[in-house]
Amino acid sequence: MPCIFHELTGFYCPGCGGTRAFLALITGHPIISFLYNPAVIYAAGVLLFYAVWGVSYAISQHHLKKIRRPRFYLAFVWIFIAILFANCTVKNLLLL
Q1: Separation CA 21–CA 29 (nearest Å)
Q2: Total structural domains within the chain
Q3: Does some domain include residue 90?
Q4: Distance between CA atoms of residues 40 and 20, nearest Å
Q5: What's the rounded Cα separation, in Å, for the pair 94 and 96?
Q6: 67 vs 36, higher pLDDT
Q7: Domain boundaries, position 19
Q8: Against a cut of 0.85, is the pTM above it?
Q9: Phi and psi of 73, rounded to 5°?
Q10: Mean of the pLDDT values across residues 8-37?
Q11: 71 domain-assigned
Q12: Residue at 96 is within a domain
């Protein structure tokens, strides 16, 4: 499905390349994924961190009481948004 924003304006939106980046990432091409949209790599890294923590906590919940739950920081969301808009800006500047 084509991007409506790109078809109407001729410019890239912040999410352009996200689907291609996701498909490249799950097929084992992280560099290509980064070039399509670096926010996908960042989001995958954050999700992987929480998934690894969740599994390790579930395994050791009864044995190690000192493992603390990592906090979700709003900074993660702001960094994600900043990466999206930086990607959009760079791609549109290269388009000109």
Answers
A1: 9
A2: 1
A3: no
A4: 10
A5: 5
A6: 36
A7: 4-80
A8: no
A9: -105, 140
A10: 92
A11: yes
A12: no
Q: Residue 48 — pLDDT band, cuts 50, 70, 90?
A: very high
Q: Give the residue, 56 or 88, on which the prediction is more confident.
A: 88
Here the tokens at position 37 are: 């949209």
C-alpha distances in Å from residue 25, one per residue of 5, 17, 32, 33, 35 = 24, 12, 8, 5, 11
Report yes or no: 87 and 37 within 8 Å, Cβ to Cβ. Answer: yes
The one-letter code for the residue type at 47 is: L
In-domain check, residue 54: yes
Residue pair 34/21 in contact (Cβ under 8 Å)? The answer is yes
- Length of the chain, please? 96
Residue 67 CB neighbours (<10 A):
13
Higher pLDDT, 67 or 9: 9
Res 15 pLDDT > 80: yes
